[in-house]
Inverse folding.
């Protein structure tokens, strides 16, 4: 049976549980073990799909069309795992399942309670088949949160159900450094582990977030008060890039701790792929500047997968990538004078759309490499219709009810995998030969993940084609334009999908790789 590693957090939120989970998984993979990952969030939203990027960060989309927490992006990027709707579970979804089961009569009239009904439902999701050696499960939130208690109770029960030797508990805490006294304080860590013990869980390893490496006496003190060997207390130091985390864990013998707990043979790991990234980060390389014209910059994680995909493409092109944040609501052509490429990401709502349209115009008229994603494709189409085809009122029906709709609500498409009216998840795309898209992908059959509600009106295809904007990728039934590009331009391409969800630090993504390559050529 699979073995399980549960990652919990205490003291404060945002300690990096997702990165820690991915880091532990990467160490296991480096020794040849297969790893799956799951995320459990205690909040009461059914899923993150309706949550504002300003509050929660980006919504990540799995290939089967489920809107999930952004931490699943960490897992897929780090581990190469292909996750599904079964791997992102919120408290709201758990209660929804239980209450619907009660309404159907599944409990045969029994009194429905937190234990066993809710806890059993959580354990069902934990134990869902994975066909891997290990399943790493992150428990969101912070120990002590009211809504998280039932999740802690469930993983305590689960450890008893499958055997304690098959479960490891890893707890992240914080050791703040007080400047005035010059001391690193371990008390918050002690109290957090005590809270975990109150829920019946003894941590097997601690990752203590600190501004510096823990000293031996500090590790001894934490180990003594937290009831575990000092060697199982790990320094979770800040690094300038998350892909250095597996190397930091390797240097502190984290795999040895995991191996000792599960009775695995000691083995040396192959960390080549992470060493390559570390060498890239320290190399003296040219830098290209990409102007990202967006509107969610107040939250660092709102464009997390996009930022990662640009970084990955930099690795593949052996250049550093500087992302210049350009507020779409305050867009001015002057903001683009020093950029080597312009990227317009997705988004919902009319706010900032005019700035994105102007950004597409600037890229088209000034031969600046352009990449549009989802809404970034739609604004490129609107701009071309207005300023090349001369359709002054060209717009999307999302933004204007009275207009010439070059972008309209989706029609005549299979609604499987669609949440509400959203087209969600991976869909196939046929690429026309002899196009930039065909050159980029090197194949005429691809699959990309979607999250959109509106589409380009294909009835106007001939008018666009005659003026120089072609549909180079479309759905197999020919009805949905997936990729557009402009002929006689150094690099102007946009997709209705979100390629950033399939980017990898080890290979990048074809569209991002080509975009950064074009930006580097412009950089000269």
């Amino acid at each position: 049976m699979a073995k399980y590693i549960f990652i919990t957090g205490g003291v404060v939120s945002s300690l990096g549980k997702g990165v820690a989970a991915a880091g532990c998984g990467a160490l296991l993979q480096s020794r040849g073990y297969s790893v799956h990952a799951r995320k459990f969030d205690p909040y009461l939203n059914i899923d993150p799909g309706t949550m504002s990027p300003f509050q929660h960060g980006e919504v990540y989309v799995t290939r089967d069309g489920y809107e999930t927490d952004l931490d699943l992006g960490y897992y897929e990027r780090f581990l190469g795992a292909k996750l599904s709707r079964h791997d992102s579970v919120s408290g709201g979804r758990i209660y929804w399942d239980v209450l619907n089961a009660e309404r159907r009569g599944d409990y045969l009239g029994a009194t429905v309670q937190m234990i066993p009904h809710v806890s059993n439902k959580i354990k069902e999701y934990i134990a869902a088949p994975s066909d891997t050696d290990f399943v790493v499960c992150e428990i969101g939130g912070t120990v002590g949160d009211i809504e998280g208690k039932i999740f802690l109770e469930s993983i305590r029960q689960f450890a008893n159900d499958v055997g304690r030797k098959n479960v490891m508990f890893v707890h992240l805490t914080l050791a703040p450094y007080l400047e005035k006294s010059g001391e690193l304080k371990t008390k918050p860590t002690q109290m957090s582990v005590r809270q975990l013990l109150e829920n019946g869980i003894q941590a097997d390893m601690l990752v203590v977030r600190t501004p510096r490496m823990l000293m031996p006496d500090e590790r001894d003190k934490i180990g003594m008060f937290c009831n575990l060997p000092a060697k199982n207390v790990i320094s979770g130091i800040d690094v300038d890039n998350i892909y250095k985390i597996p190397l930091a864990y390797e240097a502190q013998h984290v795999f040895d701790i995991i191996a000792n707990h599960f009775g695995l043979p000691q083995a040396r790991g192959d960390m080549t792929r992470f060493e390559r990234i570390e060498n890239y980060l320290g190399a003296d390389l040219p830098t290209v500047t990409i102007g990202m014209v967006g509107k969610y910059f107040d939250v660092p994680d709102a464009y997390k997968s996009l930022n990662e995909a640009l970084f990955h493409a930099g690795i593949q092109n052996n250049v550093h990538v500087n992302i210049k944040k350009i507020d779409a609501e305050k867009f001015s052509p002057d903001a683009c004078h020093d950029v080597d490429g312009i990227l317009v990401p997705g988004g919902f709502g009319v706010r900032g759309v005019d700035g994105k349209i102007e950004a597409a115009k600037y890229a088209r008229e000034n031969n600046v490499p352009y990449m549009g994603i989802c809404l970034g494709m739609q604004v490129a189409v609107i701009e071309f219709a207005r300023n090349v085809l001369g359709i002054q009122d060209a717009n999307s029906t999302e933004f204007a009810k009275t207009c010439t709709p070059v972008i309209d609500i989706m029609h005549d498409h299979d609604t499987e995998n669609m949440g509400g009216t959203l087209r969600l998840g991976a869909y196939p795309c046929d690429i026309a030969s002899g196009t930039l898209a065909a050159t980029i992908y090197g194949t005429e059959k691809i699959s990309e993940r979607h999250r959109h509600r509106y589409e380009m009106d294909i009835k106007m295809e001939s008018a666009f084609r005659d003026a120089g904007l072609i549909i180079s990728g479309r759905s197999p039934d020919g009805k949905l334009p997936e990729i557009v590009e402009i002929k006689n331009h150094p690099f102007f391409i946009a997709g209705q999908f979100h390629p950033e969800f399939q980017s990898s630090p080890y290979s990048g993504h074809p569209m991002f790789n080509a975009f950064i390559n074009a930006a580097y050529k412009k950089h000269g």
In short: The domain at 3-276 is CATH 3.40.50.300 (Rossmann fold).
